[in-house]
Amino acid sequence: MVPTREIYWNIDHHTLLYAVFAFALAIFSYGMYRRARLWFSGQKEETFGQISRRLLFTLRNVVSHRGILRETRPGIIHALMFFGFTALFIGTCLVAIQVHLGWPILYGNFYLYYSLSLDVFGALFVGGILLAAVRRYLFEQKFLRNTRDDAVILGLLFSILLTGFMVEGARIAVTSPPWSEYSPVGYIFSKLLVAALSKSQGTQTCTAAAISTLHRTIWWIHMMLAMGFIAYIPYSKLLHLFTAPLNIFLHSTRPKGALKPLALEDVEAKTLETRVFGVLSPKDFTWKQLLDVDACMRCGRCDSQCPATLAEKPLKPQKIILDIRSQMEADTQGRLPGGKISDAEIWACTTCRACVEHCPVNIEHLQKIIDLRRGPGLMEGKYPAEITRAIKNIQFQKNPYGLGNEQREDWMQGLDIKRLSASDGAILFWVGCAGAFDNRNRQTTRAFVRLLKEMKIDFCVLGREEMCCGDPLRRVGNEMDFQQLVKQNIAVFKKYNVKDIVTCCPHCFNTLKNEYPQFRGNFNVLHHTELISKNGNRIKDLLNKKTRATLSDKTITYHDPCYLGRHNDVYEGPRELLCLLPDTELREMERSRDRSFCCGGGGGHMWMEQRLGKNINEMRTDQALETGADIIATACPYCLTMLSNALKAKDREDVKVLDIVEVLAGG
Ligand code: SF4
Ligand code: SF4
User: Please, what's the b/e burial string for 437-474 (b: 16 or more CB within 10 A of its CB; e: otherwise)?
Assistant: First the structure.
């Protein structure tokens, strides 16, 4: 006897089933059409090439569950549900193929493995649903929102699986196939059903007819629930079954740290009057950005990593995404910045990128927040007062500090430093505004220059010809001035035939490296930690002589600057440099590398007062102090300033904040 099972055993009226299926499919299709119509109310998007690479990326992400499993417990729960769902879906497709194409698939050993796998995956799926319910409803989840939709979905899935196992159990109870152990869960259900029916009928045995009737009833309930599930997808969080993989497939291929450029030139005359630069309402986003918001599955991971949320400021990245979604549903022309989304939310973002990094479905919160700054800024000239001042400083003095450009060379006093000339093949040391104007950061600049000289690296500077790199302008949404400045800087670089650039500032590093190529400014840009690492042997010799005495027995903790770490994936180089130090101990903070907590200085916040919630720099400093370190090492002028200010506020100036070059120079 060949192992198999009769499909549609005990079931008549298949036509009714197909009619219900067609109805469910129609509701599903209408829902998907409505979503797609909303997405395409947005603007044009860049074209999406590299199809096979994207497919591979999506498959790898979905199958490995890499992003989801970053958070272990919820990740495992999702994996149980996802793989359970996938296995049952494939199983159902095989049945459909056999019935409608007449291919003999479910026979012999294949049938036995099929039957066993579906039962095992079904059981794991039920386990996942129960764990998800326990997690949601029995343990308080700070960043997880519970809505009616969540309860409906969990209830629906559980009922579908339960009735599925009951149907299988009833069939096994009546047909008693010799291979019923290959359906272990169905087999247990068959025993339970027989026992329950016998008890209710007050007899030792129950009739096959009674079980058959029950089977037929539950089968129809099971099918109606499954059809309800299909119809419900586009109207619920289940939509992410489609939008999440699609969003991963359409992920941006820009470097992580690069914001999308606005096309400010060559705008067609006919669209000029209606054209919005940046975003004022959902229709100003591109269709891909609108699809993006529909991929959100409300997992709350973005909120759990956002320094502004954790500091109790008005911003929650998940809310931004859901607000854009609900405004898109209500009216694609409705006002977002200053309307559905408050200015306080938009301006609380430090552009640290923690939300994007941790979103398992590649949603780009940061680009949207910048677009929401661009809209009011470019169209209405609306910026917070401190930001307006910083912008004016850059416009007139070419630096956000508002100091006269003649002071740009003050830090060089007493140091013999070459100015760049066209014939020079030396590496350009891009000092950056913080390194040139801020007193504390000038010490870092001088320490780096001394190190460059000791390592015998040929370098030169632009001196007064250097201007702001444009990062602050772009992060506050002033794309117009940003692009002008970038073009001016590129012209200077080209005049001097610049090829290699090194800088101590991760903000300059990110902009020069990742954003200048958008304007045909392609240079080989290194952060100072990368240049030093490249010359590891030379620095090792210097360290042995210099640092032993001053840093002996010191404990160091390293704070990852957001624009070096999450924006550029530079995590290990700085740590390897610190590990070169003799007789010192490197202690990690609980939040480090891609989970590092922002210092609070990015996205224009170097020039803004922290008025709402807790101070982010003080929170980060507390995390550093918890390690008991004597030195907080970092590699960014903003972080240096923010953390130093926090130590001062906490009266903990016994702990030093130093740039890595200062640490290497012996503190
Ligand atoms: S970029 Fe950082 S501060 Fe801004 S929303 Fe994301 S996590 Fe929050
Ligand atoms: S935006 Fe991403 S991380 Fe945030 S709740 Fe939605 S899916 Fe989760």
Answer: bbeebbbbbbbbbebbebbebebbbbbeebbbbbbbbb
